Predict the 3D structure of the following.
Amino acid sequence: MRAAARFAAWVYAIAVYGFIFLPVVVLVLFSLQATSFPIPPFTGPSLRWYQAVLSDTRLTSALVNSLLVAVLSSLASVTLGFLSAWGFSRFVLPGSAFLRGLITLPLTVSYLIIGMGLLVLFNWAGVPKSLLAAGIGHVVINLPLCFAIIYSQMGDHQINIERAARDLGAAEWKVLLMITVPVMAPAIFAGFFLSMTFSWDEFVISFLLTRFETTLPVEIWNLLRSGLNPKTNAVGSLVFAVSIVLVVFFELTLLRRKPA
Amino acid sequence: MSVTGNNARALPWALVTPALAWTLLFFVLPFIAMGFSSLTAHEGGGFTLGNYSQFFTDPSYWRAMVNSLEVTAVVTVISILLAYPFAWILAEMVPERWQRLALMLAVLPFWTSYVVRSYSWLLVLAQNGVINRALTGIGLIGEPLQLANTRFATVTGFVHFFVMLLTLTIFANLKQLSPSYRKAAADLGAGPIRTFLHVVLPLTLPGIMVGAFLTFVLCIGDYITPQILGGNNELVMPQLVMMQIGRRGDFPLASALSIILMALVTIAYLACARWLKIERA
């Protein structure tokens, strides 16, 4: 009886793994097939569609745009998030709980609504659609994440090191740059890589706020009009690969950190 | 000395002001703009409640909200039922040293974009996709089934995503549970099933609620999955919002619909609020 239950549990776990990996495996597998439809039966490996992606200037320039928006918006998110986390954890500010709540509030609102709001505002203020507008939106969604990650990692241990530096005569900016930033480096990098991942994969805000020059998920969306297409498989697999690299960095920076 | 004193008071505000200003300027202000926009007429401007009354009187709009709520409810329930046993197996049966790897693998596809993930499900569910080819191949069905462009496809795409998300939250919850609770229950004579129902399940309920809330918020606000997998056969709220902008450039109506969508999420938040306390570690 017990053995049967254990067996059933393992079968269940394997079935769920199968369900989770089915679409990804199909995506990558049929990106490697030379025929013009990404459907079974699978016929031999070929890199034809990856070449097609890399020689498509619309896709490659969208890829560069995506990287640019991801890096710059993540840098802005992590900088603003770090400074505010430091401010809130080191100093007693009036209305601190309310203000912290305000900074994390965008986490509870869907991207669609954040994008819609910015679209209405920019439209009213006469700000044209652009990558910059999409980048601003990405900071709105990633700033609360960076703040929450860094704020949650600022403990008493770090306060004591900073106090020691101050007692030894370090100016406030020196404490910040030479003590706090290095000590908080794992949380800062984790916030940065997580922001990169979300910005890199983000669709709806970029879709609403860009026009001619756009990001990769929006270009992939445009490709979908042609139905099932091995080129979409290839570029989708590339996007997935980049996301995985970013997540691995995130894991290594935040989760590998063991208290000394 | 007074200069230092001023500095000491100015410094904290200098640190937190940029983030607060960004939030006010690009999150709160857009919201206010959307509120104003929702109260103006698309033709000619001027104050009106027409955008809201249109939603409550036009049955097709009303239908979209019912669709959204139905899909979200079904997705939330199925995802919890699938994810809980899975998270339990990962937390209890997988050896400790393999758990991190097992969990990381279980949520790997979580990290790819909605667009790519939904497209991948299209490959699986299409007329000539993997499932139909496999089923006709072994002779189980004669004609391919209509799987894509249905509510079934939308729900499948969503469940795929939320099983991974809920596995993460429930796993974390199960790991935080001290083993002494279960030992105590066993010492008092409870069998494994009673221990689970009366001890483990109630103690992991907060984690389930957090996961259910996240599922609700992300599911009801998502445009991509229903658009790619569900097609245009039956619309959900986000599709309705995007239609107003795309086809007609009707910002006021799109704003009103967004605010109604927001209101739904707020109601869900208030319903789960007691479980959603985020505290500093």
Notes: Chain A touches chain B through 87 residues (CB under 8 Å).
